[in-house]
Design brief:
The protein is built from two helices and ten strands. It is α+β, with helices and mostly antiparallel strands.
Length: 152
Amino acid sequence: MSDDLPDRLVPPSPDAAEPTAQDSAERRRIQRFLALRRGEPCFWVVIDGGARLPLRDISVEGFSIGLEGLPGDGEPFDFVMHREGVPDQIRGRARAVNYIASAAQAGCRFLALEADGAERLRDWLIALVIMNASVRINEKDAAAIVAGPSLI
């Protein structure tokens, strides 16, 4: 764990270490999911106590949001994520690793998630896959999709 992270924050996984200069271009290793349910935003983030923003997509590695400029001015930032209509939340620290000015979209990578945040995030994504599947899908198959490589 990084010395500058509070004790309550832990890295989500060994693969989600701090990004390098090489990470500035988007490369999807893990499947990302549109953060929508029935065409409406269903995942939200508050960055450094600011405004509530809808996520555009989400994965076990990070998320993207619509934003004019880099969140945190390119420095690591604290966030709180939540699902629409559900009281639980995930707290953590992230860094913007990609910004597309023409789309006003910032891609952010998790640096650390609080306590059981990684497990909770995985559960959120499994539920999202099951809810949005066009065919009947079980939890085991949804978990494999969440953990699997990008299909895009």
